[in-house]
Amino acid sequence: MFFIFLGSADCILLAVMAYDRFVAICHPLRYSLRMSWQRCARLALGSLVLGFILATQLTQDDDADEVEIAVDNTAFMDEFFSEIEETRVNIDKISEHLEEVKRLHSVILSAPIPEPKTKDDLEQLTTEIKKKANNVRNKLKSMEKHIEEDEVRSSADLRIRKSQHSVLSRKFVEVMTKYNEAQVDFRERSKGRIQRQLEITGKKTTDEELEEMLESGNSALFTSGIIDSQISKQALSEIEGRHKDIVRLESSIKELHDMFIDIAMLVENQGEMLDNIELNVMHTVDHVEKAQEETKRAVKYQGQARKKLVIIIVIVVVLLGLLALIIGLSVGLK
């Protein structure tokens, strides 16, 4: 409404100025006593130039206003949705890596002595998951900080940001929980393989004893007392290899422990809003898209209306100027 009023005010000003010029020119009897017809003609032409200059300037201002409206309404949220999309892509990548990790776990567990390349591939995937998980965690915490800073302002944009942040936080917790479960499962199955190999050598161990051996980090504890037995080199190598796998797993789990706590607390603090968040987001996005379309149409129609009004006034100014020129020439010839 403000821009429409502003445009109307400009047009009214233009019309008043043109009218004043016309009144001054269209009194040939008064002007014929004070100036020549050449002066009257120049004055009429001046009114035409003035009308065109004002109309051109008004049209340029109208275009600038439209650009300013579009930038103000979309720039900030475009940047936010760009961050959301980047975070979503990283979470999806973690999920894809997780499936590959599970596949490699199965390959390693099915082979008495896994190939070094398989373990290297698993190590690379683990590193990539930790890298992307840290990136997602930092992004979510940064979003949360900005949301808390804007908490005093209640707006549709703020609600959208909260909803999107909540959805991504929950998805991140879900995928990282699955990753943690895959690691724990791999550890338990590797421990079972070690226990079976020890039983083959005649060395029986309880779960508690095996856990103590694993926590010590010393593979010599597994082979002490059985070096002189008939255990094959293959079985001994498998025991040592499984033990190293478990040590690496425990190191990875410890590195991600703080991240699990941070994100779990983040989701827990969001409370019941998570229950219906996806539905709310879908409705919110639909409303936002409709509002943006309606705003664009309104701005477009407003601009068209202003331009039409400007064109009409320019035509009027031209006609008035020509009329004044004709009258002035007529008086001059007389």
Automatic annotation (TrEMBL):
Principal location:
membrane
Could you tell me which residue ranges the G-protein coupled receptors family 1 profile domain spans?
Answer: 1-55
Membrane topology term reads: Single-pass type IV membrane protein
Localisation per UniProt entry: Membrane
User: Where do the T-SNARE coiled-coil homology domain residues begin and end?
Assistant: 236-298
Matching CDD domains: SNARE_syntaxin3, SynN
Residues annotated as coiled-coil are: 84-153
Gene3D superfamilies assigned to the protein according to its UniProt record, in alphabetical order: 1.20.5.110, 1.20.58.70, Rhodopsin 7-helix transmembrane proteins
Q: Which family does it belong to?
A: Belongs to the syntaxin family.
Which PANTHER family does the record associate with it?
SYNTAXIN, SYNTAXIN-3
Name under which the protein is recorded: Syntaxin-3
Tell me the organism.
Capra hircus (Goat)
